[in-house]
Amino acid sequence: MALKSAKKKSGQSVPAAVKLKRGYPDLHDHIEALKKAGLLIEVSEKINKDTEMHPLVRWQFRGLQNEEDRRAFLFTNIADSKGRKFDIPVLVGGLAGNRAIYSIGMQCKLEDVRDKWIHAMKNPIRPRLVQKAPCQEIVYKGRDLLNGHGLDDIPVPISSPGWDNAPYMSASHFITKDPENGIQNMGNYRGQIKAPDRLGMNPSIELRTGGYWHWEKWKALGRPMPCAVVLGAPPAVSFTSVQKVPENVDELHVTGALVGRPLNVVKAKTVDLLVPAEAEIIIEGFISTKYLEPEAPFGESHGHVNLQEYNAYMDVTCITRRRNAVMVSWVSQVTPSESSCIKKPAYEAAQMIHLRDNLGIKGVHKVITHETLTSLHKLIVIQFEKGTPNTEVWRALYGVASLRMAEGKWIVAVDKDIDGENGDAVFWAMSYRCKPHLDVQMLKHKAEGHGPRSMIDPEDSAILINAMLKETYPPISLPKREYMENARKIWERLGLPKLKPQMPWYGYDLGEWNDHLERQAQLAVKSEYWETGKWCAAHRRSDVAMNTEMRTLKDEPDYRGRARSKRK
Question: Relative to the CA of 211, which of 159, 200, 314, 484 has its CA 20 to 30 Å away?
Answer without folding.
Answer: 159
